[in-house]
Amino acid sequence: MERCRCDDSIVIPTDRAGRVRAMFDRIAPRYDLMNALMTGGRDQAWRRKAARLARPEGGGIALDVATGTGDLACALLDETGVGQVVGLDFSAPMLALGRAKARRLGVEPRIRFVAGDALALPFSDRTFACVTSAFLLRNLTDLDRGLREMARVTRPGGKVAALETSHPTLPGFRTLFALYFRRLIPVLGALVSGDREAYRYLPRTAQGFLEPEDLSRAMRTAGLRDVTYRRLALGTVAIHVGTA
Q1: What is the CATH number of the domain that holds 115?
Q2: What are the tens digits of pLDDT across the range 110-130?
Q3: How far is Cα 32 from Cα 30, in angstroms, rounded to an integer?
Q4: pLDDT > 70? residue 12
Q5: pLDDT at residue 74 above 90?
Q6: What predicted TM-score, i.e. pTM, was given to this entire model?
Q7: CA neighbor of 136 nearest in space, from 215, 65, 209, 203
Q8: Domain presence at residue 239
Q9: What are phi and psi for residue 226, nearest 5 degrees?
């Protein structure tokens, strides 16, 4: 089986990055449940769609950045025909849950979970046939650096696909969704995960994140070409795809 060369070092986080990592450490045990509740169970379908859009020609190794509990990493195995997936995250509890999930699903030999920083990926240039992420970009302290790192480790012609929150375009629905995200999600997060503040942070980052057109421009600036995006779920999420 083809394998990647990995450097297991982790960059010391900035204060904000450290706080975000601590937050994801805390909510890891209920992360999957909260994702399902917040999205009406649609988050898995979105990940599968992102995986299909990243599908490389001829297989190879895929990288899922900020893999969390490994759902998109598993989708890459199911949807793309790659032989191996590396799932990288900076949260040890998330990685532990991802490993347990891979064992439960019988795919552990084909997914390697690695601790690391999305802003300094511990891989050589042009290592991966495709690179994906789900709900990562709005949490980065340096978006341009993160995008450039993903482009750097992708083989020429390979896809970089990012599933991200977006802003609905329907005026009435946009207002209703903002109320749902800002008011109801923190209450739900407090009840399910016991961490209201984490689910206040997540809507704030979504609300302040780039519009799809602006994120597409940032991906092109980072060196990706043929950048496109597809809105899903009435515009509340979008999948952005660029070619290295």
Answers
A1: 3.40.50.150
A2: 999 999 999 999 999 999 999
A3: 6
A4: no
A5: yes
A6: 0.91
A7: 65
A8: yes
A9: 50, 45
